[in-house]
Specification:
single chain, about 425 residues, alpha/beta, 4-stranded antiparallel β-sheet, 13 strands, about 15% strand, elongated, binds glutamic acid
Length: about 425
């Protein structure tokens, strides 16, 4: 390991798609490691692929990180750094470590590319998670590092940037491990000190296949729209490859900064478990203040329910604790509201009177009699609490047959088939 003066990490997303869970996990681990060491984390937008990079994706990535509370000390865009890469490409060519090669480009055309002169050595590095990793660089040949002086390829631009930005630790997904020997060769050719590497385990679907859209939502936006809390997503993502080694499962960012341990990250694939995410989200919902819970619910409610809720503030405050108990994510509340499950709190239910008939009952007069009696009993109930209400109705219901009494009572109040 080299002599580390200052911890500097980076997250280097390419804006070729929406911000996804894998990038969030990489960013989070870089963030936690930098912050717990009093270091810095850098965001580098790797937008050199002009065809595939889109402003829309870049905005999505930036907004996503902001929403999650993952902040950066510095931000860079590779597209603005072409001159820097050119300078280093020229240096390597001058030093005889890279060369321009004229190559067949099909249809009789010839094209120039810049190739790295491979010293054909054995390369080994100690990965902070995987331990010693060895490669024979001869397998790589004289690989292409740029299409021209103005068009560096990924491996080259990354190394130049990591050197220039004085990155101390490269923490990234295991899918990049095969890039590492090329990058080490380039770094050595540039005469720069070795970086520390940590390759994070892949994130796998519950069936251990590579996680993809087929299994679960992978884009942060989808989770945001479904009403997951950013704190919960951060908490859950921290567990994709790491755990504190204690029983504690609910963490806020500051605790993660304190407890996270890069060297304890597992080597094996991290399984993405949506039930666990739901559970963690529910736990974070429990931690919300009443005010923020109410605001969040209102954000998710369908317009009609929202109107009723705002017009009947007292009732709305009363049912908020019930809603809180019942949802895992805010989308659940929206679904219940849409299904009309809460309408009876705000307006008299409308239904056909036959709906009041319990299974074998056919006489609405009986129903009427029961409901009258129930009203009478309720009027005598001193304290309007679950247990007291039940107490005052129970004997009568038991005598007359519970279904015959309780079904119409509940239906008359709610207008709903299910309670
Ligand atoms: N731009 C690369 C990506 O989107 C990451 C490069 C790196 O971390 O070295 O996967």
């Amino acid at each position: 390991m080299n002599n580390i003066k200052k911890i500097r990490t980076r997250i280097a997303p390419s804006p070729t798609g929406h911000l996804h869970i894998g990038t969030v996990r990489t960013a989070l681990f870089n963030y936690l490691f930098a912050k717990q060491n009093g270091g810095q984390i850098i965001l580098r937008i790797e937008d050199t692929d002009k065809k595939r990079s889109k402003q829309e994706y870049e905005n999505d990535i930036l907004e996503g990180f902001e929403w999650l509370g993952i902040g950066f000390d510095e931000k860079y865009w590779q597209s603005a750094r072409t001159k820097i890469y050119k300078k280093y490409l020229q240096k390597l060519i001058t030093d005889g470590k890279a060369y321009i090669s004229k190559e067949e480009a099909g249809e009789g055309k010839r094209e120039e590319v810049i190739r790295f002169k491979n010293p054909n050595t054995k390369i080994s590095f100690v990965d902070l998670i995987r331990g010693r990793v060895e490669f024979d660089s001869a397998d790589l040949g004289d690989f292409v590092i740029a299409k021209s002086l103005d068009e560096p390829l990924y491996n080259f631009a990354v190394v130049v940037d990591d050197c220039e930005m004085k990155i101390s630790h490269i923490i990234r997904g295991e899918d990049h491990i095969s890039n590492t020997p090329r990058q080490i060769l380039i770094q050595e050719a540039l005469g720069a000190p070795r970086f520390n590497y940590a390759h994070l385990p892949l994130i796998l679907a519950p069936d251990r296949s590579k996680m993809s859209k087929r299994h679960n939502a992978v884009s942060v936006n989808e989770y945001r729209k479904a009403g997951y809390l950013p704190e919960a997503l951060v908490n859950y993502t921290a567990f994709l490859g790491w755990n504190p080694g204690t029983e504690q499962e609910i963490f806020i960012m500051d605790e993660l900064v304190e407890k996270f341990n890069l060297s304890k990250v597992q080597k094996g694939g991290a399984i993405f478990n949506p039930e666990k995410l739901n559970w963690i989200n529910k736990e974070h919902i429990k931690l919300m203040t009443n005010e923020s819970f109410e605001a969040k619910i209102l954000e998710f409610l369908p317009v009609e329910t929202k109107k009723m809720a705002l017009a009947n503030d007292k009732m709305f405050s009363k049912i908020l604790p019930l809603i809180r108990e019942r949802i895992e994510k805010f989308e659940d509340a929206a679904k219940m509201a849409k299904a009309g499950d809460w309408d009876y709190y705000f307006k008299r239910p409308e239904y056909e009177k036959e709906k009041l008939l319990w299974k074998d009952e056919s006489d609405l007069n009986n129903v009427k009699k029961h409901l009258k009696k129930i009203i009478e009993l309720l009027e005598k109930t001193a304290v309007f609490e679950n247990e007291k209400i039940k107490e005052s109705l129970w004997d009568y219901a038991t005598e007359e047959g519970r279904g015959f009494v309780l079904w119409p009572t509940r239906f008359a109040l709610s207008g709903c088939d299910k309670s």
